[in-house]
Design brief:
single chain; 494 residues; alpha+beta; Anthranilate synthase; 13-stranded mixed β-sheet; 10-stranded antiparallel β-sheet; 23 strands; binds ligand ISC
């Protein structure tokens, strides 16, 4: 849809006047260290924010298409980064400091009455799988954006934030951020429909990487047989190359259209973007109720994929979802999530049996947990207790992480880490960064991992990664593997 009128360059003077008036009022009694946020209602409608220039600036884009929630965070009012074993505690302390004097003024949208404004203002956060990882995104990061645009349930808001010491100069900085973000696309443009689509990138064959993955799965099975670990999650990368820089908006639009029940996310900085559509919630906290998923075990309906690339006699179909191997794989995640949450919750409930989560190309087993958290427990405590679950690391967790480091199963950017947001009241949600790609210029690296337990077979696990990679490959319009072109994949589920 069109951008809300207040974001139209022709209306900027109105926006400027409203922001300046509210900021002056807030500054009157604020100490310099206070964080000030102003939320304006921009009207009714649905905005996916894909008109924004995401490709060449620091931004965070997040969508839950099926609940009509679309967020775009631009710029930085406050930023905290961290790494190492205490990284979540460091973010927690920083967030406590920020929220101790976070002043919020919500004009025309009464914090409690308007669902679009209820979870505002907010920070966004993300972290790598491994607390020692060093990559082109900080290991762990929390940002209160300068501008946060939210379209949720038909209501659109904009929240502007700055440290009080910035004073009235913040208004021009906010308007500059908006100008830079929406400058190239006239207000009349209707989202990505007017943008040229990306030309399909080519998949770069990497037979050595493929063999290394198969060898890692075999080594993981040997480690499991030794009794030192019970489960390991092994991952691989597929590289795509395009003739021109890959534009993000069409890829995000495709992710959102094909995976509406997933969380679609993009974390960008100049020259690089990390994007994906994940089905897995790590944790959500809402008014003292924590919700978490134990997601693992995979089945798919494309037997042809199983014989790809390895050229060996391979199983021709996936394990049934209720097969012992899948149940074991998911059961270990259920046990770990329960053990992590139980000490932090007064009550904890879990579904009696796993449900089937049907996605576009595959299916998973999922057990949902819900519990009342104990007094004083916050989102960071919950993240620290849960991450990494055996859905992305292994069991026992520390032994699995040691093995993955030793076997160079590195997880670039925030793959198998987390991305999410937290509002000023401590409510928030973090998803596990899966089904993703790191895009840089004309290159896209797509990632997928698989849980290895007794009974896993290397070729079949390879096939499972191919199926998981389909989400990113499809969104990037990469042509399917030749072996799949002649045999269309039967779709199951939605
Ligand atoms: C690690 C990934 O998926 C996890 C989540 C669901 C099912 C999984 C599995 O069946 O192996 C994985 O544990 C990935 O998609 O890269």
């Amino acid at each position: 849809m069109r951008l809300p009128p207040l974001l139209d360059p022709a209306q900027r003077h109105v926006l400027r006047a409203r922001l300046a008036a509210q900021l002056v009022t807030q500054l009157a009694d604020a100490p310099p260290h206070a964080l000030i946020s102003l939320t304006l209602t921009l009207g009714e409608g649905h905005c996916r924010w894909l008109d924004a220039r995401l490709d060449d600036q620091h931004a965070f884009w997040w969508a839950r298409p099926d609940t009509d929630e679309w967020r775009l965070a631009l710029g930085q009012a406050m930023i905290v980064t961290s790494a190492g074993p205490n990284r979540f505690t460091a973010l927690q302390a920083a967030f406590a400091g920020i929220s101790a004097d976070w002043r919020h003024h919500a004009r025309d949208c009464g914090d409690s009455g308007n669902s679009a404004a209820r979870r505002l203002p907010a920070a966004h956060l993300g972290f790598a799988f491994d607390d020692e990882a060093q990559d082109d995104l900080p290991n762990a990061r929390l940002i209160v954006p300068a501008v946060l645009l939210v379209s949720r349930g038909g209501k659109i808001t904009a929240t502007f934030s700055c440290p009080a010491r910035e004073g009235e100069a913040a208004v021009d900085a906010w308007l500059d951020t908006l100008r830079r973000s929406f400058v190239a696309i006239p207000n009349s443009a209707a989202g990505t429909a007017h943008r040229p689509p990306n030309l399909p990138p080519q998949r770069q064959p990497a037979p050595l990487d493929d063999r290394a993955f198969l060898a890692r799965v075999t080594a993981a099975l040997a480690e499991i047989a030794s009794g030192r670990v019970r489960k390991l999650v092994v991952s691989r990368r597929v590289r795509l190359r395009a003739k021109q820089p890959i534009a993000l908006a069409p890829v995000l639009a495709a992710f959102a259209e094909r995976h509406p029940a997933c969380t679609v996310y993009a974390v960008t900085r100049p020259g690089m973007a990390f994007i994906g559509a994940t089905p897995e919630r790590l944790i959500a906290l809402d008014d003292g109720i924590a919700r978490a998923d134990a997601l693992a075990g995979t089945a798919w309906a494309a037997p042809e994929v199983a014989a790809l690339r390895t050229g060996e006699a391979a199983p021709t179909e996936s394990f049934a979802l209720d097969d012992d191997k899948n149940s074991r794989e998911q059961g270990l995640v259920v046990d770990a999530v329960r053990s992590a949450l139980a000490p932090l919750c007064q009550t904890l409930e879990q579904a009696a049996a796993p449900e089937v989560l049907r996605l576009r190309d595959l299916q998973h087993l999922r057990t949902q947990f819900a519990g009342h958290v104990r007094t004083g427990v916050d989102l960071f405590d919950l993240i620290a207790a849960l991450h990494p679950t055996p859905a992305v690391g292994g069991t026992p967790s520390l032994a699995a992480q040691r093995w993955l480091r030793a076997h160079r199963d590195t997880r670039p950017a925030w793959f198998t880490g987390g991305v999410g947001w937290i509002d000023a009241g401590g409510n928030g949600e973090v998803v596990v960064a899966l089904r993703c790609a790191r895009i840089s210029g004309g290159f896209a690296d797509c990632y997928a991992g698989v849980g290895i337990v007794p009974g896993s077979r290397p070729e079949q696990e390879f096939a499972e990664t191919e199926i998981k990679l389909t989400a990113a490959l499809d969104a990037l319009q990469c042509r399917p593997h030749p072996a799949l072109e002649s045999a269309p994949t039967p779709r199951t589920g939605t």
